[in-house]
Design goal:
Blueprint: H1 3-8, H2 21-31, H3 33-43, H4 49-56, H5 60-72, E1 76-81, E2 84-89, H6 93-108, H7 120-132
Antiparallel strand pairs: 1-2
Length: 133
């Protein structure tokens, strides 16, 4: 997705800073650690909720809620097989995006991790504040 292709969408709305709202929503959905972990697991192949619970270490209800969000975003879909539902990535382009993100993280080294707003230290401080606030 290029900035030019995002501008070409006639019905696209923008966030207060001028960024396309759909892109902001996409990156927010990818920015939640549990949803990203679920997507990374699904990048390896389809999985049942129980498989995802085991992979990400969260409660079944939490994983199901994240899957619901990802389905509403059009990023995952499911197919029924007997009594089970198998989840999979709905858009193959997501694999390209995840691969590009890995390449970018490799290229920037620790720069992103050291970011005072979104890096490891900022996340740890936010968790500490949430636990004591």
């Amino acid at each position: 997705m290029t900035m030019n292709s995002m501008k070409a969408a006639p019905a696209a709305t923008t966030a207060s800073c001028g960024a396309p709202s759909a892109a902001v929503a996409l990156f927010r959905s990818l920015g939640e650690p549990a949803r990203l972990a679920i997507l990374l697991r699904l990048a390896e192949g389809e999985a049942r909720v129980t498989d995802l619970v085991e992979a990400v270490g969260l409660a079944q209800s939490t994983v199901s809620a994240h899957l619901s969000c990802l389905r509403e975003c059009g990023l995952v879909d499911s197919r029924a097989e007997g009594r089970s539902s198998f989840y999979f990535l709905a858009r193959p382009e997501l694999l390209d995006l995840l691969a590009s993100a890995e390449n970018l993280l490799t290229a920037t080294g620790e720069a992103v991790d050291l970011c005072p707003t979104y890096g490891r230290t900022a996340v740890a401080a936010q968790r500490k504040e949430n636990n004591h606030g």
